[in-house]
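In response to the reviewer comment on reproducibility (Comment 2.3), we provide here a single inverse folding case reported in full, input and output, so that an independent group could reproduce the run without further information from us. The structure tokens appear first.
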């Protein structure tokens, strides 16, 4: 399945209308988001990835009136027979494993990369479901094979099943329902109750998930970041050469209070420092991501490759920028302004081909900047 740039994933809805009227606001059903879609990822692929140590996967079954969940990695024998009670397997970060899945995410470029999380794929047998629930994040639910009925609700108050190992709404009231066929897609903003039920034994759904840091996460991680960037002299101790005798020795005297208040108020952070924090926070790789280091090569050989081959981001790599500052997998990359355009291109397109005409000095400067990223396994050449 080739995805060309003409595929406009939102159907008749323009990107402007989508952002204005639907994004983070209300659900949107898109029939035929991709025409004649045939999933290059099969259920077999999914079962294979679910056995990988690095994969985040779940198996959900509804048995004896209870929703049950098992977490991967799985063994082949862990998957029930199709004839058994309905079941679902969900595998996250499929874009790390299949180049098709990675390029599929490019169809959602109208949302900034900093908000994009991953492509999750789920397989369900007929009647398989993860139950009525709501999520805290935006999601596009793309039907890749088979059929799934989606019911959505407009309720604001949910009661949750306390006995269940997964989040299940017990008072779910369906407002709309649709059967999605291959190529159809449903967008849901956060906190909309939804219930998807497979209608066939070949049901594959792609979930394009988004992420949003919580205020608590931003603030607590910022305090950690500030702690790490403190350059206060550790040998400087509190002093009180003008100490006076005080009536109550247990009382903390006003001089001490004032001095400690001043010390706390000395903590300052510039906008630049906050930007560095933002870049690092938003490019922190997925927790389970492991970057394989390539065989070390010299700067000379790396430069030769740079001038001939296409350089691409590892699918697990997150690269973003703020003006001329680049962040890749939580690291700040300092680069001369002159070369920023190349790095912007690499970040936006996730790949770059340098012109063979690049002069020696430029090739050298880019080589010095990019080689450490290559040696960390963050970037690689397309073979
Ligand atoms: Mn959901």
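Designed residues, in position order:
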């Amino acid at each position: 399945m080739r995805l060309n740039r003409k595929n406009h994933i939102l159907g008749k809805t323009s990107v402007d209308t989508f952002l204005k009227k639907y994004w983070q606001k209300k659900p949107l059903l898109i029939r035929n988001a991709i025409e004649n879609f045939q999933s290059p990822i099969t259920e077999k692929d999914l079962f294979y990835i679910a056995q990988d140590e690095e994969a985040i996967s779940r198996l959900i079954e509804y048995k004896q009136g209870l929703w049950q969940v098992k977490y991967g990695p799985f063994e082949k024998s862990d998957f029930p027979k199709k004839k058994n009670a309905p079941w679902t397997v969900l595998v996250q970060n499929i874009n790390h494993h299949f180049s098709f899945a990675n390029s599929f995410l490019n169809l959602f470029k109208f949302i900034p990369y900093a908000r994009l999380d991953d492509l999750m794929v789920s397989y369900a047998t007929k009647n398989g479901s993860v139950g009525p629930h709501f999520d805290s994040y935006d999601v596009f639910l793309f039907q890749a094979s088979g059929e799934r009925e989606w019911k959505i609700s407009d309720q604001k108050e949910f009661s949750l099943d306390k006995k269940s190992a997964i989040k299940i709404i017990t008072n779910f009231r369906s407002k709309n329902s649709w059967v999605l066929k291959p190529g159809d897609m449903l967008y849901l903003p956060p906190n909309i109750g939804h219930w998807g039920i497979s209608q066939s034994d070949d049901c594959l759904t792609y979930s394009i998930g988004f992420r949003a840091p919580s205020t608590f996460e931003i603030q607590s991680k910022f305090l950690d970041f500030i702690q790490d960037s403190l350059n206060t002299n550790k040998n400087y101790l509190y002093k009180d050469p003008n100490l006076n005798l005080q009536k109550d020795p247990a009382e903390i005297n006003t001089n001490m209070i004032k001095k400690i208040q001043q010390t706390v108020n000395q903590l300052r952070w510039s906008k630049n420092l906050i930007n560095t924090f933002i870049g690092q926070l938003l490019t922190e790789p997925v927790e389970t991501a492991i970057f394989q280091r390539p065989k070390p090569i010299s700067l000379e050989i790396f430069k030769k490759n740079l001038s001939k081959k296409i350089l691409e981001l590892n699918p697990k790599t997150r690269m973003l920028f703020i003006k001329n500052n680049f962040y890749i997998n939580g690291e700040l990359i300092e680069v001369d302004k002159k070369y920023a355009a190349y790095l912007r291109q690499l970040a936006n397109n996730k790949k770059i081909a340098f012109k063979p005409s690049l002069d020696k000095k430029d090739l050298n400067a880019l080589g010095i900047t990019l080689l450490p990223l290559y040696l960390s396994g963050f970037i690689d050449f397309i073979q």
